[in-house]
């Protein structure tokens, strides 16, 4: 019987390897490119096999294939990730670089302002517990949507705001939330709303940064984290 790809990945044949631009070959298996893995696996399968390297504990409340994802750029991704992790219904997060013009960017390269990448958080959520519209409402509470290439004290194109989607069916919800936010401002919104072109995970020390460094820098006020913890998700 032929073993399906997700099962092979779960065996740990490739999941311990770091992301590389090409295919890292072992004596048993040729590692697919990251883009191919994201296309063939569900968001939860990708998170388990490529990020966690082992299946994380769960209560079986979210069957494989039921999770959805949205990519949100909201300034420095340290605070933005911490904010979304606290919202009920969010099942996984990952910080990285989205919609740029180079391959496999490093943090140092992104900071040159030449790669056109935005510091972005990949938000995986259970649509049975929290809806995209609610997540976008929370997103707009955490950004200055009229500021161009700046959030808080952080300045540069990597700190621009943006909503990047992988499911075309999400576009109407995004447009509705964007128009509702625009109605609150006299200036045009600076928030991009585009399909996700590419996304590269940031270096490991950036992942869950504020959990590793509780007193680390964050452009978001503590009151927003309290808001996220106490939010009443709607689906």
Describe the overall structure:
30% of the residues lie in helices and 17% in strands. The chain has 235 residues and is of the alpha+beta class. It has 2 domains: 5-52, no CATH class; 68-230, Peptide methionine sulphoxide reductase MsrA (Peptide Methionine Sulfoxide Reductase, Chain A). Helix 4 (77-85) packs parallel to helix 9 (222-230) and helix 6 runs parallel beside helix 7. The radius of gyration is 18 Å and the shape is globular.
Instruction: Report the mean per-residue pLDDT as an integer.
Output: 83
CATH-derived topology of the largest domain: Peptide Methionine Sulfoxide Reductase, Chain A
Structural class of the helix and strand makeup? alpha+beta
Dominant shape: globular
Q: Architecture of the largest domain in CATH? A: 2-Layer Sandwich
- What is the CATH superfamily of the largest domain? Peptide methionine sulphoxide reductase MsrA
Main sheet record: 6 strands, mixed
How many domains make up the 3D coordinates?
2
Query: Span from first to last CA?
Result: 40 Å
SSE map:
Blueprint: H1 5-10, H2 34-40, H3 43-52, E1 68-74, H4 77-85, E2 90-98, H5 107-110, E3 118-125, H6 132-141, E4 150-151, E5 154-155, E6 161-165, H7 171-182, E7 192-195, E8 199-201, H8 209-212, H9 222-230
Parallel strand pairs: 6-7
Antiparallel strand pairs: 1-3, 1-6, 2-3, 2-8, 4-5
Helix pairs in contact: 4-9, 6-7
């Amino acid at each position: 019987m032929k073993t399906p790809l997700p099962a092979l990945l779960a065996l740990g044949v490739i999941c311990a390897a770091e992301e590389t631009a090409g295919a890292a070959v072992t004596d048993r298996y040729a590692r697919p490119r990251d883009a191919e893995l994201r296309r063939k696996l569900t968001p939860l399968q990708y998170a388990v096999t490529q990020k966690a390297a082992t299946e994380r504990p769960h209560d079986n409340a979210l069957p494989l294939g039921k999770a959805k994802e949205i990519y949100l750029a909201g300034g420095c991704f340290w605070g933005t990730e911490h904010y979304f992790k606290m919202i009920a219904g969010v099942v996984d997060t990952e910080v990285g670089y989205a919609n740029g013009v180079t391959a496999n960017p490093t943090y140092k390269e992104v900071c040159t302002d030449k790669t056109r990448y935005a510091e972005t958080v990949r938000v995986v959520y259970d649509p049975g517990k929290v809806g995209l519209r609610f997540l976008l409402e929370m997103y707009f509470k955490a950004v200055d949507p009229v500021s161009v290439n700046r959030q808080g004290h952080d300045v540069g194109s990597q700190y621009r705001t943006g909503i990047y989607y992988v499911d075309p069916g999400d576009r109407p919800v995004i447009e509705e939330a964007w128009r509702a936010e625009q109605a609150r401002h006299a200036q045009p919104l600076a928030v991009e709303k585009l399909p996700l072109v590419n996304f590269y995970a940031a270096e490991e020390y950036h992942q869950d940064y504020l959990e590793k460094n509780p007193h680390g820098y964050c452009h978001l006020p503590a009151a927003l984290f309290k808001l996220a913890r106490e939010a009443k998700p709607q689906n």
